[in-house]
Amino acid sequence: MDKLVIEGPCQLSGSVQVSGAKNAALPILMGCLLSETPVVLSNVPHLKDVTTTIQLLATMGVEVMFDEELNIEIDASSITTKEAPYELVKTMRASILTMGPLLARFGEAKVSLPGGCAIGSRPVNIHIEGMQKMGAEIKVEQGYIIATADRLVGADITMEPVTVTGTENLLMAAVLAEGRTTLRNAAKEPEVSDLANFLNKMGAKISGIDTDTLVIDGVEKLTGVSYRVIPDRIEAGTYLAAAALTQSCVTVKDVVPEHLTAVLDKFTEAGALITSTEDTITLDMRNRTLKPVNIVTDPYPDFPTDMQAQFVVMNCLADGEADVEETIFENRFMHVSELVRMGADIHVEGNVAHTKGVDHLIGAPVMATDLRASASLILAGLVANGETVVSRIYHIDRGYELIEEKFHKLGAHIYRAN
Length: 418
Ligand code: EPU
Known about the structure:
The protein is of the alpha/beta class. Helix content is about 30%, strand content about 25%. It contains 14 helices and 24 strands. The chain has helices spanning about 20-30, 50-60, 85-90, 100-105, 125-135, 165-175, 190-200, 235-245, 260-270, 310-315, 335-340, 370-385, 395, 405-410, and strands spanning about 5-10, 15, 40, 65, 70-75, 85, 110, 135-140, 145-150, 155-160, 180-185, 205, 215, 225-230, 250-255, 275, 280-285, 295, 320-325, 345-350, 350-355, 365, 385-390, 415. The strands form six sheets. The protein has a four-stranded mixed sheet. β16 (about 275) and β17 form a beta hairpin. The longest helix is centred in the middle third of the chain and has 13 residues, at about 235-245. It is elongated, with a radius of gyration of 21 Å. The structure holds uridine-diphosphate-2(N-acetylglucosaminyl) butyric acid. Uridine-diphosphate-2(N-acetylglucosaminyl) butyric acid binds near residues 26 and 329.
């Protein structure tokens, strides 16, 4: 099994190209199931989760082709099965996003119920209840959600708590439903808006994009378009965190700085100098002192849970104490015990990680447990003295494209071994 070996500490410099957003690409790929003619997608990142999604679509009879520029053409004009099997769903929970499109276009969907998850229980009750409100008959049999409907009908649905994939699934169900659907307390994450913009380009009628109330007037059919996926704000934030930690100056290219507003505010509070252009962000931490920052994770536009682990590492080396409170997932501090093995001073009480900054971390063998936890261990390895070996890095390959190449280009001593 692959490992990442990092020799620290290192100084980074230069710029890094940000890839397309994983959490926008996945729902958009699933959204292709709604189209009666081929769709061409660009800026889709090359990640394990994208490969899994393509595999999932292929098992349904969708034709997937790549051109020489690695754009992906998805032809879902004829589908052979409307099932998302357990073997694929168990490796990627986002597979639940096939349910809305299949039900809306074909009136039937059989999707394996996602099982447990390392970061929390992550139920899908809001997805199911929303589709029931739209007229679907839903039963759970032998671990599968089996949904049927003649044609979905518009409904007024309030989602509680705010859910990203729940909003996306119901949005995709509503675009072909009869009449108007109103989704209240909708997630406003840029990835949700990207999906909505994609669906509108295909002929959907969605208004209220970027707000917490989405109004969808159902249409008869959607047709194929070319669409470019937005940049990955979390990948960008992770490279900026690496710059902050290693007291370096790094530019991330091809980003949308507004998508990172809450994160950039926290970098500034941590002592970094941030400068942005229309599509780049530069973080300069040279000759500056890393300050501790208190953080509470919350839905967009507030501070994202997907950047929490990276900031915990920053706090571990900051000059003082800080609290990081995780409010989205109940078990998202698994990086903490690994960081403690590297010399960090962190105490978790309930959903708060309290850190006291230390002078340095020491390289150690550590184990990745989920995607963002793995990213934080790599960041810790870049700044720690000596060798850090991060095992189980299949977690990182799910969400970060060419991570060791990108860090290597910035000047890190990092390589993949098995
Ligand atoms: N929730 C329910 N019922 C539901 C759905 C959600 O109670 O039916 C709860 C969850 O248990 C959680 C909260 O609502 O406590 C929010 O979860 P949400 O549904 O928003 O999370 P998600 O859609 O499963 C997406 C991202 C995650 C990201 C979260 C929060 C994708 C594919 N995944 O997950 O990304 O952390 O939103 O922003 O978009 C990652 O990329 O590493 C990752 C985990």
